[in-house]
């Protein structure tokens, strides 16, 4: 979608120091918008700010704030005149959410309630929200369309579902409030500069960062969770989507909520299912690295296949994913090889083309 008619805006990006938020800051800046990041850095590094500055060519304003701190959030809105908010700030590890459900409900839902209250008080009435394909649970059929049964299967997924419902209720109660719920499938890859990317803490839960760390020599082999699914090669199928495509969709969704009378809930995926083994082989081609693996037991709670019907996002936003799985692997590896230990241990000056 073209942004030609959209005047530059000031956007509050909550969780903007994180993986998807940082890429979206770049996409917003590319369209001439000003971003203010609000983040508590519980799952990100302040070093991302220098990297963003290098990509954007200008310093990025960032406020260290926990969305659960109502006074601090209100202060943020008192200091700036935001046109809209993008809300990425959440804890997102499924396993951890099962062990610490109260923390997940407190952080994700408590933080969102504070944010929505502050928005209302400041008359900021446009929101783009990070939802997830996790709201579909184990889908009855694929590709998954937006009207499919919603069935979150873990506390993390339930927080996403509840936040979607909360935002929906607010839109019904306040007719001038507009929101876009973006249901991401499996975001992977990195900005082509290699300056920003996914930097998980500890052992990665997700497939692509795990593969990257095996390739980098940080882990000895990949455990493939299940080789007996009813899929062509027996391994699980997902819809991997390049984070740069995802970031661009946020700008399109922002423009939609600014100009439209309607709210929006859309899937963001490629519509193409890729198995674990297909991803491993694509990564090997892209990186030239051998990825040793072992097929182990299924991971509890995993579905055999989940991939999107992304046609609604195309119809409403004019958006479609451009990058294929080879490009996702190429950019994930570029980031990993330039930053073998992520942000914290690398110098902000070493990575990237300079
Ligand atoms: P991330 O952890 O890299 O980014 C989230 C950011 O929010 C982090 O910088 C973290 O420090 C910050 N944050 C968390 N709680 C906060 C709070 N209370 N106050 C202020 N800042 C807070 O995660 P990501 O992968 O970039 O995901 C962004 C959003 O997209 C999340 O809401 C996540 O649930 C959702 N999502 C992610 C995926 C995925 O696979 N990465 C898939 C679907 C949906
Ligand atoms: C992908 C495939 C695994 C790791 C999760 C969340 C979801 C969303 C995205 C936020 C599956 C297999 C994985 C490994 C493996 N996040 N795998 N070995 O499970 O589709 O989705 O992240 O909203 O909520 O549940 O992604 O990357 O963990 O797994 O074999 O070491 O890779 O079984 O088939 P998933 P994933």
From TrEMBL:
<dbReference type="Pfam" id="PF16363">
    <property type="entry name" value="GDP_Man_Dehyd"/>
</dbReference>
<protein>
    <recommendedName>
        <fullName>UDP-glucose 4-epimerase</fullName>
        <ecNumber>5.1.3.2</ecNumber>
    </recommendedName>
</protein>
<dbReference type="GO" id="GO:0003978">
    <property type="term" value="F:UDP-glucose 4-epimerase activity"/>
</dbReference>
<dbReference type="InterPro" id="IPR036291">
    <property type="entry name" value="NAD(P)-bd_dom_sf"/>
</dbReference>
<keyword id="KW-0520">NAD</keyword>
<comment type="similarity">
    <text>Belongs to the NAD(P)-dependent epimerase/dehydratase family.</text>
</comment>
<comment type="subunit">
    <text>Homodimer.</text>
</comment>
<dbReference type="InterPro" id="IPR005886">
    <property type="entry name" value="UDP_G4E"/>
</dbReference>
<feature type="domain" description="NAD(P)-binding">
    <location>
        <begin position="12"/>
        <end position="331"/>
    </location>
</feature>
<keyword id="KW-0413">Isomerase</keyword>
<dbReference type="InterPro" id="IPR016040">
    <property type="entry name" value="NAD(P)-bd_dom"/>
</dbReference>
<keyword id="KW-0119">Carbohydrate metabolism</keyword>
<comment type="pathway">
    <text>Carbohydrate metabolism; galactose metabolism.</text>
</comment>
């Amino acid at each position: 979608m073209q942004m030609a008619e959209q005047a530059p805006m000031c956007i509050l990006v909550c969780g903007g120091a994180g993986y998807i938020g940082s890429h979206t800051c770049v996409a917003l800046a590319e369209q001439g918008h000003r971003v203010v990041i609000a983040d508590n850095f519980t799952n990100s590094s302040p070093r991302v700010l220098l990297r963003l500055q290098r990509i954007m060519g200008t310093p990025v304003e960032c406020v260290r704030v926990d969305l659960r701190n109502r006074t601090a959030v209100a202060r943020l809105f008192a200091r700036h005149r935001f046109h809209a908010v993008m809300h990425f700030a959440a804890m997102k590890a499924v396993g951890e959410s099962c062990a610490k459900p109260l923390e997940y409900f407190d952080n994700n839902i408590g933080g969102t309630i504070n944010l929505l209250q502050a928005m209302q008080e400041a008359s900021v009435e446009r929101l783009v929200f990070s939802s997830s394909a996790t709201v579909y649970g184990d889908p009855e059929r694929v590709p998954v369309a937006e009207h499919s049964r919603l069935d979150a299967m873990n506390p993390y997924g339930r927080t996403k579902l509840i936040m979607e419902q909360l935002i929906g209720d607010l839109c019904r109660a306040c007719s001038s409030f507009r929101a876009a719920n973006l249901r991401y499938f499996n975001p992977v890859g990195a900005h082509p500069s290699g300056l920003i990317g996914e930097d998980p803490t500890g052992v990665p839960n997700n497939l692509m960062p795990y593969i990257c760390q095996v390739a980098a020599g940080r882990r000895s082999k990949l455990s493939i969770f299940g080789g007996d699914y009813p899929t062509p090669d027996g391994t699980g199928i997902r819809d991997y989507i390049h984070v740069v495509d995802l970031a661009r969709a946020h700008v399109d969704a922002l423009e939609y909520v600014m100009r439209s009378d309607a709210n929006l809930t859309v899937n963001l995926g490629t519509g193409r299912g890729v198995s674990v083994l297909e991803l491993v082989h694509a990564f090997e081609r892209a990186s030239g690295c051998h990825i040793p693996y072992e097929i182990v037991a299924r991971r509890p709670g995993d579905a055999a296949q989940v991939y999107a019907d992304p046609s609604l996002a195309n119809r409403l936003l004019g958006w479609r994913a451009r990058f294929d799985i080879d490009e996702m692997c190429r950019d994930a590896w570029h980031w990993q090889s330039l930053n073998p230990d992520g942000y914290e241990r690398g110098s902000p000056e070493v990575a990237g083309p300079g």
